From TrEMBL:
This is DUF1989 domain-containing protein. It holds the Pfam family DUF1989. Residues 54-233 form the DUF1989 domain. Residues 266-287 are annotated as: Disordered. It comes from Rhodobacter ferrooxidans. The lineage of its organism: Bacteria, Pseudomonadati, Pseudomonadota, Alphaproteobacteria, Rhodobacterales.
Protein backbone atom coordinates (compact mmCIF):
# COMPACT_ATOMS: atom_id res chain seq x y z
CA UNK A 1 0.00 0.00 0.00
CA UNK A 2 1.33 3.44 -0.91
CA UNK A 3 1.92 5.95 1.94
CA UNK A 4 -0.77 8.40 0.81
CA UNK A 5 -3.55 5.80 0.57
CA UNK A 6 -6.33 4.87 1.05
CA UNK A 7 -8.29 7.43 -0.96
CA UNK A 8 -11.63 5.75 -0.20
CA UNK A 9 -13.36 5.09 3.13
CA UNK A 10 -13.80 1.47 4.15
CA UNK A 11 -17.36 0.10 3.80
CA UNK A 12 -19.30 -0.97 6.89
CA UNK A 13 -18.54 -4.64 6.31
CA UNK A 14 -14.86 -4.08 5.55
CA UNK A 15 -13.65 -6.15 8.49
CA UNK A 16 -15.89 -9.08 7.49
CA UNK A 17 -14.69 -8.95 3.89
CA UNK A 18 -11.07 -8.87 4.96
CA UNK A 19 -11.62 -11.76 7.39
CA UNK A 20 -12.61 -14.20 4.60
CA UNK A 21 -9.95 -16.92 4.74
CA UNK A 22 -8.02 -17.58 1.51
CA UNK A 23 -7.81 -20.89 -0.30
CA UNK A 24 -4.90 -22.33 -2.24
CA UNK A 25 -5.13 -20.99 -5.80
CA UNK A 26 -3.99 -24.16 -7.52
CA UNK A 27 -4.63 -27.26 -5.41
CA UNK A 28 -1.83 -29.51 -6.59
CA UNK A 29 -3.10 -32.85 -5.31
CA UNK A 30 -3.84 -33.88 -8.90
CA UNK A 31 -0.48 -32.69 -10.22
CA UNK A 32 1.59 -35.60 -11.59
CA UNK A 33 4.15 -36.25 -8.88
CA UNK A 34 7.76 -37.21 -9.54
CA UNK A 35 8.94 -40.49 -8.02
CA UNK A 36 11.53 -38.67 -5.94
CA UNK A 37 12.86 -41.83 -4.29
CA UNK A 38 13.51 -43.41 -7.70
CA UNK A 39 15.21 -40.26 -8.98
CA UNK A 40 17.42 -39.99 -5.89
CA UNK A 41 18.27 -43.71 -6.00
CA UNK A 42 19.50 -43.29 -9.58
CA UNK A 43 22.32 -41.06 -8.29
CA UNK A 44 24.17 -44.05 -6.81
CA UNK A 45 27.27 -44.63 -8.91
CA UNK A 46 26.58 -41.71 -11.20
CA UNK A 47 29.41 -40.45 -13.39
CA UNK A 48 30.34 -36.83 -13.93
CA UNK A 49 30.19 -35.99 -17.64
CA UNK A 50 30.73 -32.24 -17.65
CA UNK A 51 31.86 -29.41 -15.41
CA UNK A 52 31.64 -25.69 -16.09
CA UNK A 53 32.81 -22.86 -13.86
CA UNK A 54 30.71 -19.72 -14.24
CA UNK A 55 32.95 -16.69 -13.66
CA UNK A 56 31.69 -13.87 -11.40
CA UNK A 57 29.52 -11.28 -13.20
CA UNK A 58 29.30 -13.55 -16.22
CA UNK A 59 27.24 -16.51 -17.46
CA UNK A 60 27.78 -19.81 -19.19
CA UNK A 61 25.47 -22.15 -21.10
CA UNK A 62 25.55 -25.93 -20.74
CA UNK A 63 23.56 -28.94 -21.88
CA UNK A 64 22.00 -31.66 -19.75
CA UNK A 65 20.66 -34.75 -21.55
CA UNK A 66 17.25 -36.04 -20.46
CA UNK A 67 17.70 -38.45 -17.56
CA UNK A 68 20.91 -36.83 -16.33
CA UNK A 69 21.47 -34.70 -13.24
CA UNK A 70 22.64 -31.12 -12.85
CA UNK A 71 24.25 -29.65 -9.75
CA UNK A 72 24.91 -25.97 -9.09
CA UNK A 73 27.41 -25.52 -6.26
CA UNK A 74 28.66 -22.46 -4.40
CA UNK A 75 32.43 -22.12 -4.53
CA UNK A 76 34.62 -19.42 -3.06
CA UNK A 77 31.95 -17.44 -1.23
CA UNK A 78 28.24 -16.59 -1.00
CA UNK A 79 26.91 -16.07 -4.52
CA UNK A 80 23.50 -15.97 -6.17
CA UNK A 81 22.88 -17.57 -9.57
CA UNK A 82 20.21 -16.75 -12.17
CA UNK A 83 19.11 -19.88 -14.02
CA UNK A 84 17.41 -20.14 -17.43
CA UNK A 85 16.34 -23.48 -18.96
CA UNK A 86 15.31 -24.24 -22.53
CA UNK A 87 14.35 -27.33 -24.48
CA UNK A 88 17.71 -28.02 -26.15
CA UNK A 89 15.91 -28.74 -29.45
CA UNK A 90 13.49 -25.77 -29.36
CA UNK A 91 14.30 -22.51 -27.59
CA UNK A 92 10.63 -21.46 -27.71
CA UNK A 93 9.97 -24.00 -24.96
CA UNK A 94 11.49 -22.41 -21.90
CA UNK A 95 11.15 -22.19 -18.15
CA UNK A 96 7.90 -20.51 -17.05
CA UNK A 97 8.66 -18.84 -13.75
CA UNK A 98 5.14 -17.44 -13.22
CA UNK A 99 3.28 -20.73 -13.63
CA UNK A 100 5.90 -22.57 -11.58
CA UNK A 101 5.26 -20.01 -8.82
CA UNK A 102 1.50 -20.50 -9.11
CA UNK A 103 1.89 -24.27 -8.77
CA UNK A 104 4.67 -24.63 -6.19
CA UNK A 105 4.78 -21.28 -4.37
CA UNK A 106 7.29 -18.46 -4.21
CA UNK A 107 10.39 -20.57 -3.49
CA UNK A 108 11.44 -23.98 -4.81
CA UNK A 109 13.10 -26.91 -3.08
CA UNK A 110 13.36 -30.69 -3.28
CA UNK A 111 10.44 -32.31 -5.12
CA UNK A 112 9.38 -29.12 -6.90
CA UNK A 113 9.59 -28.89 -10.66
CA UNK A 114 10.52 -26.24 -13.18
CA UNK A 115 7.62 -26.07 -15.66
CA UNK A 116 7.85 -25.02 -19.29
CA UNK A 117 5.98 -22.32 -21.18
CA UNK A 118 2.73 -22.75 -23.14
CA UNK A 119 1.77 -24.73 -25.09
CA UNK A 120 3.99 -27.50 -23.74
CA UNK A 121 3.60 -26.88 -19.97
CA UNK A 122 5.52 -29.89 -18.77
CA UNK A 123 8.31 -30.37 -16.25
CA UNK A 124 11.71 -29.42 -17.64
CA UNK A 125 13.51 -30.41 -14.46
CA UNK A 126 12.77 -31.78 -11.00
CA UNK A 127 14.73 -30.63 -7.95
CA UNK A 128 16.26 -33.71 -6.33
CA UNK A 129 18.34 -32.16 -3.54
CA UNK A 130 18.82 -28.80 -1.83
CA UNK A 131 21.46 -28.36 0.85
CA UNK A 132 19.71 -25.15 2.00
CA UNK A 133 16.35 -26.81 2.66
CA UNK A 134 16.93 -26.29 6.40
CA UNK A 135 16.38 -22.52 5.91
CA UNK A 136 12.63 -22.67 5.33
CA UNK A 137 11.11 -19.23 5.87
CA UNK A 138 12.88 -16.83 8.26
CA UNK A 139 11.30 -14.33 10.67
CA UNK A 140 11.03 -11.78 7.84
CA UNK A 141 9.12 -14.24 5.66
CA UNK A 142 12.08 -14.68 3.32
CA UNK A 143 13.31 -17.94 1.82
CA UNK A 144 15.81 -19.20 -0.78
CA UNK A 145 15.62 -20.19 -4.47
CA UNK A 146 12.79 -17.88 -5.52
CA UNK A 147 10.63 -17.69 -8.60
CA UNK A 148 9.34 -14.21 -7.71
CA UNK A 149 12.23 -12.13 -8.99
CA UNK A 150 12.90 -11.73 -12.67
CA UNK A 151 16.63 -11.23 -13.25
CA UNK A 152 18.69 -8.08 -12.84
CA UNK A 153 18.75 -6.25 -16.15
CA UNK A 154 20.28 -3.14 -17.71
CA UNK A 155 16.92 -1.62 -18.71
CA UNK A 156 15.59 -1.37 -15.15
CA UNK A 157 18.98 -0.14 -14.03
CA UNK A 158 18.90 2.63 -16.64
CA UNK A 159 15.33 3.47 -15.64
CA UNK A 160 16.25 3.82 -11.98
CA UNK A 161 19.79 5.22 -12.13
CA UNK A 162 20.30 6.45 -15.68
CA UNK A 163 23.48 4.38 -15.83
CA UNK A 164 24.75 1.93 -18.42
CA UNK A 165 25.78 -1.36 -16.77
CA UNK A 166 26.57 -4.35 -18.96
CA UNK A 167 27.02 -7.28 -16.58
CA UNK A 168 23.50 -7.70 -15.21
CA UNK A 169 22.25 -11.30 -15.32
CA UNK A 170 20.05 -10.47 -18.34
CA UNK A 171 23.06 -9.32 -20.36
CA UNK A 172 25.27 -12.14 -19.06
CA UNK A 173 22.66 -14.73 -20.12
CA UNK A 174 22.20 -12.98 -23.47
CA UNK A 175 25.94 -13.12 -24.25
CA UNK A 176 26.20 -16.74 -23.08
CA UNK A 177 23.22 -17.86 -25.17
CA UNK A 178 24.55 -16.06 -28.24
CA UNK A 179 27.92 -17.76 -27.78
CA UNK A 180 26.34 -21.19 -27.26
CA UNK A 181 23.90 -21.05 -30.18
CA UNK A 182 25.57 -18.73 -32.70
CA UNK A 183 22.47 -16.54 -32.68
CA UNK A 184 23.02 -12.79 -33.13
CA UNK A 185 23.10 -11.01 -29.76
CA UNK A 186 19.69 -9.32 -30.08
CA UNK A 187 18.04 -12.51 -31.29
CA UNK A 188 19.52 -14.45 -28.39
CA UNK A 189 18.21 -11.76 -26.03
CA UNK A 190 14.60 -12.54 -26.94
CA UNK A 191 15.02 -16.08 -25.54
CA UNK A 192 16.28 -14.94 -22.13
CA UNK A 193 13.48 -15.23 -19.61
CA UNK A 194 12.53 -14.89 -15.94
CA UNK A 195 14.80 -17.07 -13.84
CA UNK A 196 14.99 -19.39 -10.91
CA UNK A 197 17.03 -17.30 -8.46
CA UNK A 198 19.35 -20.02 -7.18
CA UNK A 199 20.58 -19.37 -3.59
CA UNK A 200 18.92 -15.91 -3.50
CA UNK A 201 17.07 -15.07 -0.26
CA UNK A 202 13.93 -13.07 -0.97
CA UNK A 203 10.36 -12.33 -0.02
CA UNK A 204 7.75 -9.62 0.06
CA UNK A 205 7.12 -6.93 2.66
CA UNK A 206 3.84 -7.58 4.49
CA UNK A 207 3.38 -3.81 4.84
CA UNK A 208 4.11 -2.53 1.32
CA UNK A 209 4.25 -5.67 -0.80
CA UNK A 210 7.70 -4.66 -2.00
CA UNK A 211 10.22 -7.24 -3.17
CA UNK A 212 12.84 -7.81 -0.47
CA UNK A 213 16.24 -9.47 -0.50
CA UNK A 214 18.94 -10.13 2.07
CA UNK A 215 22.39 -11.72 2.24
CA UNK A 216 22.08 -15.27 0.95
CA UNK A 217 22.69 -17.96 3.59
CA UNK A 218 24.59 -20.00 0.96
CA UNK A 219 28.14 -21.03 1.82
CA UNK A 220 30.80 -22.78 -0.29
CA UNK A 221 29.80 -26.40 -0.76
CA UNK A 222 26.07 -25.72 -0.72
CA UNK A 223 24.28 -26.94 -3.79
CA UNK A 224 20.96 -27.24 -5.62
CA UNK A 225 20.48 -30.38 -7.70
CA UNK A 226 18.11 -31.11 -10.58
CA UNK A 227 17.03 -34.07 -12.69
CA UNK A 228 16.61 -33.22 -16.38
CA UNK A 229 13.20 -34.42 -17.58
CA UNK A 230 13.95 -33.54 -21.24
CA UNK A 231 17.11 -32.60 -23.16
CA UNK A 232 18.00 -29.21 -21.71
CA UNK A 233 20.05 -26.21 -22.64
CA UNK A 234 20.74 -24.19 -19.50
CA UNK A 235 22.20 -20.77 -18.81
CA UNK A 236 23.53 -19.68 -15.42
CA UNK A 237 24.67 -16.18 -14.48
CA UNK A 238 26.75 -15.45 -11.39
CA UNK A 239 24.83 -12.32 -10.40
CA UNK A 240 26.78 -9.06 -10.08
CA UNK A 241 24.94 -8.67 -6.77
CA UNK A 242 27.12 -11.45 -5.25
CA UNK A 243 25.17 -12.61 -2.17
CA UNK A 244 22.54 -9.95 -3.04
CA UNK A 245 22.77 -8.29 0.39
CA UNK A 246 22.79 -4.73 -0.96
CA UNK A 247 22.73 -3.96 -4.66
CA UNK A 248 23.19 -5.44 -8.06
CA UNK A 249 23.70 -3.74 -11.42
CA UNK A 250 27.17 -2.56 -10.35
CA UNK A 251 30.68 -3.86 -9.71
CA UNK A 252 30.41 -3.00 -6.00
CA UNK A 253 29.46 -6.36 -4.48
CA UNK A 254 31.93 -9.19 -3.78
CA UNK A 255 31.27 -11.85 -6.40
CA UNK A 256 32.27 -15.49 -6.67
CA UNK A 257 32.10 -18.22 -9.29
CA UNK A 258 29.47 -20.96 -9.40
CA UNK A 259 30.19 -24.55 -10.39
CA UNK A 260 27.94 -26.49 -12.74
CA UNK A 261 28.27 -30.27 -12.87
CA UNK A 262 26.39 -32.76 -15.01
CA UNK A 263 26.12 -36.40 -13.94
CA UNK A 264 25.00 -39.47 -15.89
CA UNK A 265 23.30 -42.21 -13.88
CA UNK A 266 24.35 -45.83 -14.44
CA UNK A 267 20.81 -46.56 -15.57
CA UNK A 268 17.64 -44.46 -15.88
CA UNK A 269 15.54 -44.03 -12.73
CA UNK A 270 13.10 -46.92 -12.26
CA UNK A 271 9.80 -46.20 -14.00
CA UNK A 272 10.88 -42.81 -15.33
CA UNK A 273 9.66 -41.66 -18.74
CA UNK A 274 10.39 -38.26 -20.24
CA UNK A 275 7.20 -36.14 -19.98
CA UNK A 276 5.09 -35.54 -23.06
CA UNK A 277 3.85 -32.14 -24.18
CA UNK A 278 0.68 -30.90 -22.47
CA UNK A 279 -2.37 -32.69 -23.87
CA UNK A 280 -4.73 -29.69 -24.11
CA UNK A 281 -6.14 -29.82 -27.67
CA UNK A 282 -5.35 -26.13 -28.36
CA UNK A 283 -8.69 -25.46 -30.10
CA UNK A 284 -9.35 -22.58 -27.64
CA UNK A 285 -13.11 -22.85 -28.23
CA UNK A 286 -12.80 -22.05 -31.94
CA UNK A 287 -14.53 -25.22 -33.18
ZN1 LIG B 1 21.45 -10.76 -11.21
Amino acid sequence: MKPDTPHHPAPADAAARKAVPPVVCYPVESLPQPDLAALQAARAGWRKTAEVLVPPRDARCFTVPAGHFLRITSVGGPQVGDLNLWNAADLSERFYSGKTRALHGTHLSTGDRMWSSFPTLRPLATITDDSLDWYGFDAFGLSVHDVIGTRCDPYTNTLLTGGQYHHCCHSNLTRALAAATGLPLHQAETHVHDVLNVFMCTGFSRQTGQYLMKASPVRPGDYLEFFAEIDLLGGLSACPGGDCSSEHSSDTAACHPLRIEVFAPQSPPAGWVSPQRNSYDRSHGSR
